[in-house]
Automatic annotation (TrEMBL):
The keyword Iron applies. It comes from Camelina sativa (False flax). This is Flavonol synthase/flavanone 3-hydroxylase-like. Belongs to the iron/ascorbate-dependent oxidoreductase family. Keywords: Iron, Metal-binding, Oxidoreductase. The keyword Chaperone does not apply. Residues 196-296 form the Fe2OG dioxygenase domain. It holds the Pfam family 2OG-FeII_Oxy. The gene is LOC104769085.
Length: 336
């Protein structure tokens, strides 16, 4: 069965300035109604070039406890590499449909790797205004080049280089967060699977939408991952839910946006917050983002770290194999 891609729907919708009914959100979700319009609180920004390392550590921990999200500047990933990553991703999505479909997620696949559109069950049968590409970039043993675009030709080289840098930044952040729990520096890395921890690249492609007031690129969700490290293009769209309001996230060129995901919430026994967020779309411009999800391998059992559990601090979460947790969450099944 041929899947209709949002990129193609966008092209036809822009002609008549309407969108199909299945993309129109209920009033409780429509961004025109639900976005906060007053003074917006500043999402924390952490500068890794600050010579006061204790100050950097405190800022990461505080943001993870209070927001579950922060932006990192001067993070060590070369700006030129981020630009190359974005360039090869954008060029892939500008290819003819037949070339993109050559790396499509197979219909019978139980994994999410590949080019696709729908990701999870929606209880109201609504669709998100986004196409995407998933593929693992680390460790080498779990990389499947079948889902890596062959065009543009430098796609593989750029993504392999980016994997090295994003892994280094991720492990630095996990170390800071571990120490923030009063644990040894590798506690959270080990809790996610140590050297078997997987890094899943996703490219989100949100084409122009004639009714951005009614649609969402991605509906409200928290990430399945341990942490997510994301770089967006210059078109705003990320919104964060805090204090019962949806706030726009400021775009900072070359910053890495860090989301605390479900698995760090669970490993920390609730000390760190998993951020609820969503994506809006633009009427005239294409928004894109490149999140890397740092997550356990399928069979890894994840739950509160034993060192954090005691008579005064009972476990707040059940232990699940990551594959079971993911299946239950994506299919809107109970997790308690």
């Amino acid at each position: 069965m041929e899947v209709e891609r949002v990129q193609d729907i966008s092209s036809s919708s822009l002609l008549n300035e309407a969108i199909p009914l299945e993309f129109i959100r209920s009033e409780k979700e429509q961004p025109a109604i639900t976005t906060f319009r007053g003074p917006t609180p500043a999402i924390p920004v952490v500068d890794f070039s600050d010579s006061d390392e204790d100050s950097v550590r405190r800022a990461v921990v505080k943001a993870s406890e209070e927001w579950g999200l922060f932006q990192v500047v001067n993070h060590g990933i070369p700006t030129e590499l981020i630009k190359r990553l974005q360039d090869v991703g954008r060029r892939f999505f500008e290819l003819p449909s037949s070339e993109k479909e050559s790396v499509a997620k197979p219909e019978d696949s139980k994994d999410i790797e590949g080019y696709g559109t729908k990701l999870q069950k929606d209880l109201e049968s609504k669709k998100a205004w986004v196409d995407h590409l998933f593929h693992r970039i680390w460790p080498p043993s779990c990389v499947n080049y079948r889902f890596w675009p062959k065009n543009p030709p430098e796609y593989r080289e750029v993504n392999e280089e980016y994997a090295v840098h994003v892994k280094k930044l991720s492990e630095t952040l996990l170390g800071i967060l571990s120490e923030g729990l009063g644990l040894k520096r590798d506690a959270l890395k080990e809790g996610l699977g140590g050297d078997t921890t997987e890094y899943m690249m996703k490219i989100n492609y949100y084409p122009p939408c004639p009714r951005p007031d009614l649609a969402l690129g991605v509906p409200a969700h928290t990430d399945l991952s341990g942490i997510t490290l994301l770089v967006p293009n210059e078109v705003p769209g990320l919104q964060v839910f805090k204090d019962d309001h949806w706030f726009d996230a400021e775009y900072i060129p070359s910053a890495v946006i860090v989301h605390i995901g479900d698995q760090i919430l669970r490993l920390s026994n609730g000390k760190y917050k998993n951020v609820l967020h969503r994506t809006t779309v633009d009427k005239e411009k294409t928004r894109m983002s490149w999140p890397v999800f740092v997550e356990p391998h399928r069979e890894m059992i994840v739950g509160p770290l034993p060192e954090l559990i005691g008579d005064d601090n009972p476990p707040m979460f059940k232990y699940f194999a990551f594959k079971d947790y993911s299946y239950r969450k994506l299919n809107k099944l109970p997790l308690d």
